Amino acid sequence: MNLKEIKEIINLMNENDLAEIEVEREGSKIKVKKTIQGVYETVARPSIEYRAEAPAPVASVTAAPSAGNGNAPSSRKNIVSPMVGTFYRSPSPEAPPFVDVGHVVEVGQVVCIVEAMKLMNEIKSEIRGRVVEVAIENAEPVEFGQTLFAVEPV
């Protein structure tokens, strides 16, 4: 808005005995408020909404340390968190978990959700295998690189 338009708004306020007016036009918003002493206060701000949606992150896979007596190498792989956030095993509190111990996961299958900055990020598996361990409790905070699931490739 230019100065002429703002003066017209002030004149409109005076003619109609208004104490405050707010006008929004072409992505701009202006609010004019008359104080008790008759002084005008003008606040202009853009009315722009920002919304970002990131693509679904893919969980990293790392080799799990070998278990047992140390003679037999373990082929276990870990699905780790690609970000810091809150871990959720299911899409909603009343829904069953995406995966559980004993389930076979496929490449690209959603295994959990990590909430980060109010965005729900579906975490997908990079390997095919049987889930042998769920390493974290539901609704617990997770760190970048923290193990979420241990998977035995099949």
Question: Which features does this protein show?
Answer:
2 domains, 4-stranded antiparallel sheet, OB fold (Dihydrolipoamide Acetyltransferase, E2P), 5-stranded antiparallel sheet, rod-shaped, 40% strand, mainly beta
So how many helices?
A: 1
Q: Can you give the helix content as a percent range?
A: under 10%
Domain count: the total is 2
Q: Please report which band the strand proportion falls in: under 5%, 5-15%, 15-25%, 25-35%, 35-45% or over 45%.
A: 35-45%
CATH topology of the largest domain: OB fold (Dihydrolipoamide Acetyltransferase, E2P)
**CA-to-CA gap between the ends?**
65 Å
**What is the string of SSEs from the N terminus onward?**
HEEEEEEEEEEEE
What is the highest CATH level, the class of the largest domain? Mainly Beta
Q: Uncertain regions: pLDDT < 50 for 5+ in a row?
A: 46-54, 67-72
Give me the secondary-structure category: mainly beta
* Largest sheet entry: 5 strands, antiparallel
The average pLDDT value, as a whole number, equals 80
Strand order of the largest sheet: 4-5-12-10-7
Q: Choose one word for the global shape.
A: rod-shaped
Question: How large is the radius of gyration?
Answer: 28 Å
CATH architecture type of the largest domain = Beta Barrel
Structure description:
This protein is mainly beta. It has two domains: 3-46, no CATH class; 60-153, RNA polymerase II/Efflux pump adaptor protein, barrel-sandwich hybrid domain (OB fold (Dihydrolipoamide Acetyltransferase, E2P)), CATH 2.40.50.100. 8% of the residues lie in helices and 40% in strands. The strands form three sheets. It has a five-stranded antiparallel β-sheet, with no helix packed on it. The radius of gyration is 28 Å and the shape is rod-shaped. The termini are far apart.
